[in-house]
Every structure is written in C-alpha cells, then in structure tokens.
Amino acid sequence: MLSDLLPDRAGTSKVRRSWLLQPGRKAGHGWGMMRFLSLLVAAALAAGLAAALWVGCDRPVPVADSWSGPVQSVSFAPFRRGQSPLTKVYPTPAQIGEDLKSLVGLARGVRTYTSEEGMEVVPELAAKLGLKVTFGAWLTNETEAKGRLRNHQEIAALIKAANAHPKEIERVIVGNEVLLRRDLTPDQLIAYIRQVKAAVKQPVSYADVWAFYLKYPQVAKEVDFITIHILPFWEDEPVSIDHVDDYIVKIVDKMRAAFPGKPILIGEAGWPSLGRDRGPAVVDVVNEARFVRKMANVAAKYHFDYNIVEAFDQPWKSALENTVGAAWGILDIDRRPKFAMSGPVEQVRDWKSRAALALLLGLAATLAWGRKIQGFPARLAFALMAQILAWATVTTAFHAEAVSFRWWQDLWAPLRAALGLGASWIALRRAQAFLQDGHQAVSGGAPPPAAFGRRVGRGGVLGNAESLMIVSGLYGVVWSLLLLVDGRYRDIPDIDFSAPCLATLLLLLIRAVQARRHGGGLGAALAFDGLFSPIPVPTRRRATLLRLLAWGLVLGALMSVGSEGLALAMGEDFAKNHPALGARIPLVLRGMIDNREMVLWAVMQLVMAVPFLARRQEG
C-alpha cells in the first residue's frame, strides 16, 4: 500500500522505524549522512526508471515497409524561414539551386505550383541535375481585377516557360484546387486549359482533390491527363495509416472506372509529421515515413504515376493550416531528411538531449527539495514525481519552440513553457510540504516557514500559485471552445496541458493518501483549497466562481470530443457516402472517440476539474 510508504502521524515512515530507529541508535552526523545517501538512492532509482522510459518511448521505431531508390516526384516550394508567398518574400535563384541539389537521389522529378515568383529558373536548374519537371500555373479568384490580371500573367509565364524548355518541362498543370476553393467556375477553368493546350506541346492537366473530378467530369474531358490529390489524412473520413495503401488503390480504381483510358497522375500524396491528429489518422514522423514508403511500393506494384507532397516543410503554411499544414516535407525546414526509406525511424531527432535535460532537472529538484522528507519510500515518491514533471516541463518547452512559425508564436512560446515550469515548481513544493507534514495535506493550512524558506502569503510566489492553476483551467476551457467552432486545423493542446494536469493528478494522489492516514475526508483531500498554495479558504463567492470554472472544464471535455463528431457529420463526402441517417449516427459516435489525442485532451480537462468541483464553500 502507498500509505505504508509515506510518513505516519509522527512524520516517520513505518519502513524507517522498522530498522533505523532501533533502541540505542542516536541521531547525529552519521544519521544525517544516512538520510543523504537515502535521498541519493531514491533520486538515482527514479532517474534510472525515467531514463529507461525515455529510451523505450523514443528509441528508433521498426518500420516494416521499405523502399530502395528515389520517389518519382516531390512538390517543390523552396520557401525558407522568413519567406512566404503571402508576404511576397521569395527564395533567390541560388537558394532554389541549392534546394534542387538536396533532392538529387531522393526524387526523380519535381512539381511546381506557380510559373512566377522565382520559379522561372527551375526548369533549367533541374535539368542540369537530371530532375524532370512538372510545371504549374497558380490560378486565383477573379472577383477583382487584380485576380484576373494575376491569372493572365501566370498563364502567359507558363506558356513561355513550356515553349522555352520543351525538353526540361515534361508536362504542365493549369491551376491547383481552384474548384475546391471555389475560386473559379468550371467554365472559367476550362477556358484557361484550352488556352494553354493551344499554345504548348506538353501534356496539359488540372490538379484537384479526386472527388472534384467526379463532381465536374467536364473538366476531365479537357485535359490530357487527370491530376488527382489523394490525402487520406484530410478526407472527410480520415484514414488510418494502416489502411492508406488499400485506400489509394481504391480511389485510383474509382477514377479509372469513371474516366477509362485517361492517364492519371496522383499529384499530391503525403502525410504530416507534426500537428493535430484527425480521427484515426495519427500525425508523427514514423507515420509519415510509413506513408511515403507505402506510396512508393503501391505505385511500383500497380504502375501508378505519383508525386509526394512535399519536398520541404513550409512554415508559412501555418498561417493557413496551423502546425499540421507546415509539416508535410520529407525534409525539414533546415533541409535535413526526417527519415530514411528503409530501416527504423527516429520519432524525435533530439530526444537524447531532451532526456538528459529532463533527468538533470528531476535530479536537481529531488536533491534540492527532498532533503527534509522523512523516510525512503516518501523520498522515492517525491523523486518519481520530480522526474515525471521534469519530462512534462521539458517536452512542453521543446514542443512550444517546434510549433512556433510566426512572430506572435515566438512570443507565446516562452509563456507556454513558463506555464509548464510554473505548474511543476508549484506541485513539487506542495508535494514536499505534504510529504514532510501529513497534517498539512489534510488541513491545507500554511506550513512552517522553514518548509519553504520564503513568504507564502497572498503576495508571495506560492501565494499566487492558485491563480496560475486557475489560468490553466481557463486556458483549457477557451481552447476547447475554439476547437468546437474552428477545429479543423487547430492544434490540440495536450502537451501544453501536460504539466498542469500531471501536477494536479499527482498532488491529489499524495494528498488523498495522506488524508486517509491522518483522519481527513476524501472530499477535502480532493478539494482545490490548499492544494496548490498554503492560503486560507477563500470566500463563498470565489468558491462559486471556481465551481463555474470546473463545470466549464467538464463542458470543455464534452465539446472536445463532440467537435470530432461534428466535423465528421458536416463533411460533404461523408453525407454522400452514408445517405441514411441510421448509418451515419454510429459512425459519428465512433468518430468522437477515434481520435486518441482528442480523447486524452478531454480526460485531462476532467482531471483538472476535480479539485474545482470538490472545493469547500466556506466563508
């Protein structure tokens, strides 16, 4: 029992009394050394267990799929940090040349999306490196005159490049997902396709999500080959990585049946390595590697023509699709390959440095604040808690930096890291107090000054601890509301919330055990009062407000899982594929729990709600 491992009413654990406090044993320097050695052993055991978990969770993951040789083609948008088509800051010819060189051996060709913005140099540079080019023109909305002018310029540049480089440019694509975005009507698009076909010798196509060719079959009649995007992650019914190969074959077969004899290019196929999950489609580096390898093998088996999206991560896309939109590259923003095409895949490249930092932080916290805790089992419990919270703190800080792509995110990242650090610091100091004095775990009252060595009133650091945890709760409620109203691209903040949630859970566990040993009730042990800060119980009015926050967290948990079902139910293709309401309802209900990341986020909110719900109303 954990209760046997923690201090009793006299502040001395049963284990310690059984062999250390034997008759005739005197306290002194030797006893102090024994206590220090006991703490060292506890710290070492906790660190060893934590290290084993780091290795077990982050070591390279075996991936059965493998591929030898380059992929057929990759989407080429060579934007670097600080560059974006949205701000009209474009890569230089020298940078484009460097990026093309980085793809030699990884891909046989590249696909571009615009005929301007510096891409004019791609055909010549790519040809020198032996890379085939699928050259594209970007078309946009024509409701304003500048849109029509832009489209005319793009088409003119496409025709000029195709005729200037008849050997280097293998084929051309007129427009990308303009029907999906509703930027142009099918007739407007067809007019541009006909204009290009009349002016160039290369095969001409238009690129869009596969369903839009079925929706507008008249477009298929105008092109020399059909370019379809198959992105299982973005489907109305997201597809698990385990089933993507079958899904790709299914879609291509459907398109071949709809347009017999028409050549098909899979113009975009890929998987993100960072960002939020969608249903059973889990985002990480391992799954991106699995997808690219599967795509190459499926294409070879069924003789598919394909292009992987994309060559490099694109931070600028975070402005449109948040984190998940920025992380589809087979190379990261620094042009480093994320994975090889065979063998195990490393999920987090810098996991060893993260582990080292977390282990050191956990050790430091244990040695600094665990000295006054009596009994080896209690010290071990504290050391384990320190390592758990060190993991959460370090993971939060590194993640905040990894998903910061814009200036305001660079400002927000330190605050996200500070939230994790603050919650961990508060929890460890309170755990120290609870383990040192079991009565405090029951009363929640102020500890002796020596326990903290600093001021603990409302103006002190610990005096503001409750406010920090309240801010964490508000953060959760607001984010869940945002996920409900606009959740397609929005990150799920389970990593940001990990430190506050774990801090709450671990403190509640310690406090509940101590309350049981010292005659306190479970309700009081689970209450917010005195959990994070040794402050007297506040007024009834404040307690009522905090209950509202608690129910806000509960509602947030329901909104979070509900947002997954709502997104599924509102999908246009989902409604077409399942016209009967009776067939849709079970799928929507299952969709609410398919996303494990979202379910975890909901559970974390419920954990945070517990102390607010259990709060005593006094005053």
From TrEMBL:
<comment type="function">
    <text>Glucanases play a role in cell expansion during growth, in cell-cell fusion during mating, and in spore release during sporulation. This enzyme may be involved in beta-glucan degradation. Active on laminarin and lichenan.</text>
</comment>
<dbReference type="GO" id="GO:0016787">
    <property type="term" value="F:hydrolase activity"/>
</dbReference>
<keyword id="KW-0624">Polysaccharide degradation</keyword>
<feature type="transmembrane region" description="Helical">
    <location>
        <begin position="468"/>
        <end position="485"/>
    </location>
</feature>
<feature type="transmembrane region" description="Helical">
    <location>
        <begin position="598"/>
        <end position="614"/>
    </location>
</feature>
<protein>
    <recommendedName>
        <fullName>Endo-1,3-beta-glucanase btgC</fullName>
    </recommendedName>
</protein>
<keyword id="KW-0325">Glycoprotein</keyword>
<keyword id="KW-0961">Cell wall biogenesis/degradation</keyword>
<keyword id="KW-0378">Hydrolase</keyword>
<keyword id="KW-1133">Transmembrane helix</keyword>
<dbReference type="InterPro" id="IPR050732">
    <property type="entry name" value="Beta-glucan_modifiers"/>
</dbReference>
<keyword id="KW-0119">Carbohydrate metabolism</keyword>
<keyword id="KW-1003">Cell membrane</keyword>
<feature type="transmembrane region" description="Helical">
    <location>
        <begin position="548"/>
        <end position="570"/>
    </location>
</feature>
<dbReference type="InterPro" id="IPR017853">
    <property type="entry name" value="GH"/>
</dbReference>
<feature type="transmembrane region" description="Helical">
    <location>
        <begin position="381"/>
        <end position="399"/>
    </location>
</feature>
<keyword id="KW-0812">Transmembrane</keyword>
<dbReference type="GO" id="GO:0005886">
    <property type="term" value="C:plasma membrane"/>
</dbReference>
<dbReference type="GO" id="GO:0000272">
    <property type="term" value="P:polysaccharide catabolic process"/>
</dbReference>
<keyword id="KW-0472">Membrane</keyword>
<dbReference type="GO" id="GO:0071555">
    <property type="term" value="P:cell wall organization"/>
</dbReference>
